[in-house]
Each structure stands twice: as structure tokens, then as C-alpha cells.
Amino acid sequence: GENVEQHPSTLSVQEGDSAVIKCTYSDSASNYFPWYKQELGKRPQLIIDIRSNVGEKKDQRIAVTLNKTAKHFSLHITETQPEDSAVYFCAALRGGSNYKLTFGKGTLLTVNP
Amino acid sequence: DGGITQSPKYLFRKEGQNVTLSCEQNLNHDAMYWYRQDPGQGLRLIYYSQIVNDFQKGDIAEGYSVSREKKESFPLTVTSAQKNPTAFYLCASSIPGQGRGTGELFFGEGSRLTVL
After folding, report:
1. B38 contacts chain A (CB < 8 A)
2. Which residue, among A35, A89, A101, A103, would best test binding to B if mutated, counting the most B CBs under 10 Å from its CB?
3. B97 part of contact set with chain A, CB < 8 Å
4. Which residues in chain A have Cβ-Cβ distances shorter than 8 Å to B55?
5. Which of B43, B86, B89, B103 is deepest in the core (most CB within 10 A)?
6. Interacting residues of B58 by C-beta distance below 8 A, sequence separation 6+
7. What is the Cα–Cα distance from B74 to B67, expressed in whole angstroms?
8. Per-residue pLDDT tens over the stretch A5-54
9. What distance in Å separates the CA atoms of residue A86 and residue B92, rounded to the nearest whole number?
């Protein structure tokens, strides 16, 4: 089955700095890669996703890049703000499975004011 | 107000007892899921259902059971066979992706189960 590794497990940055979270996946047939943000005590929410036919996608201060050859994808947050503090999960979906997302173990991002 | 509702929010259980967690959605989504969240472990899929009266095992189904008798409801039973049931349980639903994989998952607020 699919295996998703996520690094780092914790990340602390100063407000205004950039943050990068990296994930690798094992199944070359995976073709959909979402990122979820979970604030403390709240439910996870989708913040951005990318499909395998695209190399990069941006949405304001967040961006995701995908390297299919190396089987890794990354979340980039620029100009971080204290409200970006949360746990971020990457995930991968194997093509054809439609329903079984495999999640990484999460990254606790702390943005210090 | 559309959304996905889980109950109870907190639940305590004695060893050897079964317990059922409720999950209801009014988003008209076909697919529903149960995930387990443990510290440092991410989200692990327990069961999922693509359509009414059908469900599939996820990666950690042992000791759990589900039913999908109605589109809007997907209850999870944690049985006494589950060796380590203390965890945070998240229910989710989605519109199956338009032929290209899972659409966005909409999560409930979760149920925290503690076995005493």
C-alpha cells in the first residue's frame, strides 16, 4: 500500500518567515495530494491540493510543489502569521482507489510573534 | 446549516464494553469515512463507505464495525476486541471526485473516547 512520510514533525518560525513542510510517497500510481490544516481543538480543513498533472499550485501565501520523479511534494507558507500555527497533514491518493487517502503523521507549526 | 455532526464529543468506556459513535451529515455526500487520530500518528482510516448499504475496511479496521443504512448516517462501533481504543475519532464525508479521486474531505469535530 501507499506510505507517506512527512518532515519535520515540528517546526518553529518567526512571524514573517517562510515555512516549508515536505512529504514523500511510495506509490508511483498516486495522483492526488491534498494538504489539511488542523488548528488546536478543531477539525482538519483542506487548505490546498495538487494533482499529478501539475507541478505547482499557489493560493495567496501558500503553495504546493510536486516532483513526480522523486515522489515528493512540499507545502510552502510565506510571510507566516501567528494564525498559521497548527498541525499540517499531507496526504496521497492512489490513482483508481478514489477513496483511500493515506495521511502523513503531521507537522506542528508554531509561528512566534 | 450544512455540515457533519459527531456525537458524543467525549465518551468514557469501561474495558469490555462496546460503544457507538454517531456521525450524521446533511451535505448530501455519498462517501463517508472514519479516521482515528493518535498523537504523532496522523490520521488512519478505519472504514469507509462509498454508498448506502456498502462499506469497506480501511487500514486499521480490526475491533471496529460500521453500518450505512442511510445516506446521511455512518455510525462506528468500537468493540471490546479493539485492544487500544483510547483515541480521537474523526468522521468525514466527501463528494467522490469527478472521476479523478477523492474530493475534499469535510470533517466532523471529532469524538474523544477514553477507556477507563
Report:
1. no
2. A101
3. yes
4. none
5. B43
6. A100, B33, B34, B44, B45, B46, B47, B48
7. 6
8. 999 999 999 999 999 999 999 999 898 899 999 999 899 999 999 988 88
9. 19
